[in-house]
Amino acid sequence: MISEEEKEELKIELAKLEDEISTLRQVLAAKEKHLVEIKQKLGISLMNELKQNFSRSWHDMQTTSAYKKTHETLSHAGQKATAAISNVGTAISKKFGDMSYSIRHSISMPAMRNSPTFKSFEEKVETTVTSLKTKVGGTGHTGGSFEEVLSSTAQASAQSSLAGTRLPESEEELQC
Fold first, then answer.
1. Helices 116-136 and 146-163, axial angle in degrees (round to 10)
2. Distance from CA of residue 42 to its chain's centroid?
3. Could you give the dihedral angle defined by the CA atoms of residues 128, 131, 137 and 141, in that order, rounded to the nearest 10 degrees?
4. How many CB atoms lie within 10 A of CB 16?
5. pLDDT of residue 121
6. What is the pLDDT of residue 62?
């Protein structure tokens, strides 16, 4: 328990502290007002001051070891990610190339030729070729089965890739 004497001393000390705080606030307000006046005379605006503080803070942050380590780590991670994405792109390109090669060479597979889907496609192509020849005014000669047409097309494609692209010059060359 506090005695009456100590209570009175504490109340007096409390009143003195409150007075000092009030005085300090008044002095601080006067100094802040004076500061604003000086800045106005020097042409320093609040925006300029904020820019300078931000620039200084940014520079201070960039010079910390934590920032440097983070920057190095993220830079290294970015390089690794770039390499990984490049490898994925290369793998996808290679896979598409393999698929293209596979598709080009799968036509000669007997299993595919004997499939119902291929037979249906073959019939539709033969009907279309016959119809076109009739409409264009060609002879009734169909030029062979679809398999012969494919074979001759494949041979022509191989020859044109070896000797350059060559267009047929006569109607006989168009006929299979």
1. 80
2. 49
3. 80
4. 10
5. 75
6. 85
The pair of structure tokens assigned to 132 is 């076109």
- Backbone φ/ψ region at 143: left (φ over 0), alpha (ψ -120 to 50), beta: left
The pLDDT value recorded for residue 151 is 65
Contact 129, 135 (CB under 8 A): no
> How confident is the chain (176 residues) per 10-residue block, as mean pLDDT?
92 96 97 92 82 86 86 86 80 67 57 71 77 62 58 60 50 51
C-alpha angle 6-1-20 in degrees, rounded to nearest 5 = 35
Angle at CA of residue 146, ends 140 and 152, nearest 5° = 95
Amino acid found at 17: L
**Chain position carrying tokens 């009030």:** 22
Residue with tokens 């520079």: 59
In this prediction the pTM is 0.29
